[in-house]
Amino acid sequence: MAYRYWCGECGFRTAWLGESEGERQQVEHYRRKHPGIPPGGHVEVDRKDPGGGLGCLRLVVVAVVLLALAASCRR
Question: HSE on the CB side for 6, CA within 13 Å?
Fold first, then answer.
C-alpha cells in the first residue's frame, strides 16, 4: 500500500510513499512551516501495490495489439 499525507494547515501533500516515510515527511513539514502546531490533516491510502508494474504492461500489450491490427488492415 501507498500513503499520501496532507497538511491540515495549508495545501502541502507528500508524494505516494510508504507509511513511515510519508509520516516522517509530514512531521518535518509541520516542524519547518508550522512550528508549535501538532501535525494534523488527513491521509489517503492507495491499496494497490505501489511497486507493481502491471499498469505499464497492460499499456504495452494494448499498443502491440493495436499495431498488429493496423498492420493486418494494410494488407
Answer: 8
Collapsing DSSP to helix, strand or coil, 13 comes out as strand
Tell whether the model's pLDDT for residue 11 goes beyond 90. yes
Q: How do strand 42-46 and strand 2-6 relate by DSSP bridges?
A: antiparallel
> Which cell numbers hold the place of 41?
490533516
**Whether the Cβ atoms of residue 33 and residue 10 lie closer than 8 Å to each other:** yes
Give the model's pLDDT for residue 74: 73
Mean pLDDT confidence for 46-74: 79
- How far is CA 39 from its chain centroid? 21
Nine cell digits for residue 6: 496532507
